[in-house]
Amino acid sequence: MDSLSGMDNAAPQGWRRMRERLVRRILPRSLLGRMLLIGFIPLLATQAISLELFYGHYLQVVSRRLSGDLATTISMTLDMLERYPAPADRQWILEDAGRRAGLVMTLHEGESLHRRGSNHVLGPIDEDLAHDLQAAVRWPTFVDWKQAHHRVMIAVQTPIGVLQVVVLRKRLVVAPVWLFVAWASGSALLLFLIAALFMRNQVRAIRRLARAAELFGLGRDTVPIVPEGAQEIRKAAIAFNRMRERINRFVEQRTTVLAGVSHDLRTPLTRLRLSLAMLPREGRVEAVSLQPDIADMIGDIGEMEHMIEGYLSFARGEGAETPVVIRVEDMFDEVVVTLRRMGAQAAIGALTPGLVMTGRPNALRRVLSNVAENARRHAGRIVLSAEKGRRQVVLYVDDDGCGVEESRREHVFRPFESGAAGGTGLGLAIARDIIHAHGGHIGLETSPLGGARVRIVLPN
Predict the structure, then answer these.
(1) Paired strand residues for 235
(2) Is 350 in a helix, a strand, or coil?
């Protein structure tokens, strides 16, 4: 029983998901498209209802009355012709009925009707006239709506011949249906265009706000956006400007405090280094015996300065630098030269010619240096390469080391996760923060060289 109830519940959920997927495919994805659809559907429904009320009720009632009056006039004329069969009487009846009813009636004796029914035109009048003639006249009839532009030709088969009746079209048609359809469609289109113009202005303000938020998130700070559009959009723009000012003020204050902390920490270390450098190194036995200790202390001070610099860089971030256009090849050349000075075997691999991107050059060089330094400690060969993707630039740093296990590839980017003795574990953490500040992504993969590959994706 439980399995059957589970199947019964799964079926409606499957249909619901299919319906939602179909609706998402049909509906426009943009806000402007959905707003236009929300305005267009009620407008279209209103015009359709008004057309149905006019075409389906008023026009049909008037059409039936006009066609009924004409059919009655023709029927009475036929009855008079049958009652008074004399040629003189027939001529007088046709002339008198035509003059009184505004018709042109002609009797063609001895002729026969070759067509029956009616050829159709737009509107209900043709069907109403054919129906009323069939009800009022007991002989076959034919209505020709297309022989003359402003007239309607009606032919009735009588025992003595064919009665031809010519009536003006305006006597049967109240107004052209196409005129009402054109008016309804034109007014709907005009109102739709006016609504689209106003909605487009509102959506433009939202797009500007979204673009400003995206650029601010990427660190490309811009001037405050001008509030425009509806009241809610103006409030959102004002709130964004205030948030931007608070964040910039916070970053500036934090940078100032960190600069002071850096100065306060480096001053005693510099004093210690200077004191150790001024100690006597030759002459006395005590000085000679202190030489190894002095060298160790100088090394410890250098390591402390390196650790302090890493901590401050991790806390400070790289948000104060202005983004500029960077040539990837030039940046790779600088990193490779630095690695070769350090004794590493570094080279530039596949690179799209003339590849450029927008970013903070010092921050990105720091990322590549941290990643390459990490690779240098675990590998002998390092290759830098890059390629251009769709609206993005992908940078690769490959090495031929032992690689990184897949289960640890995310952990190495955490702060203080160091696999080397004496390391701070902040190099890759700083690199990830800088890449995220650029709106990009950094991750570890398996390198074609057999070691680890650092893949950096940056928007362009």
Answers:
(1) none
(2) strand
Q: Given strand 141-144, what is the order of strands in its sheet?
A: 104-109, 161-168, 151-158, 141-144, 117-118
Residue 459 contacts residue 382 (beta carbons within 8 Å): no
- Quick check: 351 and 329 in contact, CB under 8 A? yes
Measured in whole angstroms, the distance separating CA 113 from the mean position of its chain's CA atoms is: 65
Q: How far apart are CA 85 and CA 322, in angstroms?
A: 108
Q: With beta carbons less than 8 A apart as the criterion, state whether 152 and 144 touch.
A: yes
Dist. CA 442–CA 454, nearest whole Å: 7
Q: Which amino acid is at 226?
A: V
Residue among 255, 241, 211 nearest 439 (CA)? 211
Write out the H or E segment, with its range, that includes residue 393.
strand 392-399
DSSP string, 149-184: SSEEEEEEEETTEEEEEEEEGGGT-SS-HHHHHHHH
Ramachandran region of residue 389, left (φ > 0), alpha (ψ -120 to 50) or beta? beta
Distance CA 320, CA 299 (A): 32
Average pLDDT of the residues of the chain: 79
Greatest alpha-carbon pair distance for the chain in Å reads 163
Q: Is residue 399 a contact partner of residue 378, using CB atoms and an 8 Å limit?
A: yes
60 pLDDT band, cuts 50/70/90, is confident
Question: In this structure, what are the phi and psi dihedrals at residue 142, rounded to the nearest 5 degrees?
Answer: -145, 135
- Least confident segment among 151-165, 346-360, 400-414: 400-414
Beta bridge partners of 104: 166
Question: d(Cα 57, Cα 98) in Å, to the nearest integer?
Answer: 31
Q: Write the CB contacts of 220 (distance below 8 Å, at least 6 apart in sequence).
A: 323, 358
In this predicted model, what pLDDT tens digit does every residue of 118-154 receive, in sequence order? Answer: 777 766 677 888 888 888 888 888 888 887 778 888 8
